[in-house]
Design a protein that fits this description.
By secondary structure, this protein is of the alpha+beta class. Helices cover about 15% and strands about 30% of the residues. It has 3 domains: about 90 residues; about 150 residues, no CATH class; about 200 residues, Sandwich (Tick-borne Encephalitis virus Glycoprotein, domain 1), CATH 2.60.98. A hairpin with an 8-residue loop joins strand 18 and strand 19. It is rod-shaped, with a radius of gyration of 37 Å.
Length: about 475
């Protein structure tokens, strides 16, 4: 009897409408949840076999679909760890059991117990360890190369100085200083015999200009570098001007020497062989040639320096400056395993007073992290109490071919499925990923007006299905009473 099917159809209709009402209720409840993606119930029919003269009513089922691809509105905050994805892509996060998931909820804060950046649901943000100035290697189809972004990795970290800029103007009007040394220095200079060493040899104490810069060794110890410039050749027709630059460790200076040059060996222009390894050696020495027409550097002839800062190589070839070979000065910082490379590009010798145009050296002393910051390229920085800013992580985004088919889990997270397609990992703005917006959060994509309208329609639909069920029940009762 088809009346029984009417009851079953009415029941399935009420169940489908109840499911629809459940999605509406969930959407309204999460209207202010960061990164939430609305749920929707789409109905499909279950048709029973019928004939032209005998119809059997079927049923209806509700299929749940998540509207993951629709972008939520962005709201701006003052936090440097609040981040939103504008376009495609998801943050990769990890739960306390080590499981990796995807999310659009980017309200990250520092967890005081674990040191991780976590969102409101307690999931830790994952990134790839990076090195400033180098390309970051990313596993393109798996999260295996990613790790939790952790403050403990960044704390009390010392960075040695390896790169710097030294751009100054040297006054071309200064006169040439000639070398007045007649023999190598054989002993230390003392206050009693200023101007000569202990063997009576004259020591050149003339130079044109001196400046100092701060650098750091491997343990973050501050090293003051004294940089001496000495003009050793005047410009003339067909002859370019030359300056000699020599760098010393200020800690090796002798404060008892009553000279402007307080070191126990000759100072530029030396014209001397390299000092022995046991002598307080200079850290770098080069002859720099400047163009007579532009005042720019045209050539650098630098003594080679071994990484231990004690061995000097003999007579290296001069380096001609071209756009692909910028002028550089390498300095062997004491107790550092790498040379400090100072970029001299932009240093000139013009008819103006000595002026430092830009002097900057990387590296920092050990310091605690004051703040963690993320930029729009996905670089994660630690900002130390001394103001230094050091990059530690890159923040890739994950994506799948069909985001709406992701498996939705509690905590506003997603997991890839066979329907969503394989995982793809790339940096922001690469491989179809969207961009990051720092200091912003993606809000829920729920439209309250639409949800309230759907609630009214669903309520009417449920009521109508209950009426069809009740009518079928009344007819069955009438049929049963016919036999009484």
């Amino acid at each position: 009897m088809s009346l029984y099917n009417v009851l079953r159809t009415g029941t399935s209709g009420m169940e489908a409408q109840a499911t629809k009402l459940g999605t509406v209720a969930e959407n309204i409840a999460n209207a202010n949840t960061v990164g939430y993606k609305r749920a929707d119930a789409e109905f499909s029919t279950l048709v029973l076999e019928s004939s032209p003269n005998a119809y059997s009513s079927g049923a209806v089922t509700a299929n749940i679909r998540r509207d993951v691809t629709t972008q939520g509105a962005l709201t701006y905050t003052l936090s440097r760890t609040d981040i939103a994805v504008e376009g495609n892509g998801f943050f990769v996060v990890q739960d306390r059991n080590g499981g990796d998931f995807l999310t659009r909820a980017g309200s990250f804060v520092l967890d005081g117990q674990s040191g991780n950046l976590v969102n409101a649901a307690g999931f830790s943000l994952l990134g790839v360890r990076s090195t400033p100035g180098e390309d970051t290697a990313i596993t393109l189809n798996d999260t295996g190369g990613m790790e939790t972004i952790n403050l403990d990795v960044m704390n009390m970290r010392a960075s040695p100085s390896t790169l710097g800029e030294y751009r100054v103007n040297l006054d071309s009007r200064k006169t040439e200083i000639e070398d007045d040394n007649t023999a190598p220095v054989t002993g230390a200079v003392s206050p009693a015999n200023n101007g000569v060493d202990s063997a009576g040899n004259p020591v050149d104490t003339a130079f044109t200009v001196k400046s100092s810069i701060i650098a750091f060794d491997d343990l973050g110890t501050e090293v003051t570098l004294d940089v001496y410039w000495t003009k050793i050749r005047e410009a003339a027709p067909g002859v370019e001007a030359q300056w000699e630059v020599v760098v010393y460790d200020q800690a090796q200076a002798n404060p008892a020497v009553g000279l402007d040059f307080p070191y126990g060996q000759s100072e530029p222009p030396t014209g001397l062989p390299a000092p022995a390894a046991t002598d307080p050696a200079y850290l770098s020495r080069a002859v720099v040639t400047f163009s007579s027409s532009t005042g720019a550097i045209t050539e650098i002839d630098q003594e080679g320096i071994a990484f231990d800062g004690t061995t000097f190589l003999a007579d290296p070839a001069a380096v001609t400056v071209d756009p692909d070979n910028l002028p550089q000065l390498q300095v062997a910082i004491p107790n550092a395993t790498e040379l400090l490379t100072l970029d001299l590009d932009g240093t000139t010798s013009l008819a103006a007073d000595f002026e430092p145009l830009r002097v900057a050296v990387n590296g920092n002393a050990p310091a605690t992290v004051q703040e963690v910051a993320i930029d729009n390229t996905g670089r994660v920085f630690a900002i130390y109490e001394d103001g230094a800013q050091v990059e530690f992580y890159r923040l890739p985004l994950a994506n799948v071919p069909s985001p709406d088919q992701l498996d939705v889990l509690p905590g506003n997270i997603y997991s890839p499925t066979s329907r969503s397609g394989d995982l793809r990992i790339a940096l922001p703005d690469d491989a179809g990923n969207g961009s990051l917006v720092v200091g912003a959060l993606e809000q829920s994509n729920v439209d309250l007006g639409s949800e309230l309208t759907d609630m009214i329609v669903t309520q009417r639909g449920f009521s109508a299905n209950s009426r069809s069920f009740q009518t079928g029940d009344d007819l069955l009762e009438l049929l049963i009473n016919l036999g009484r």
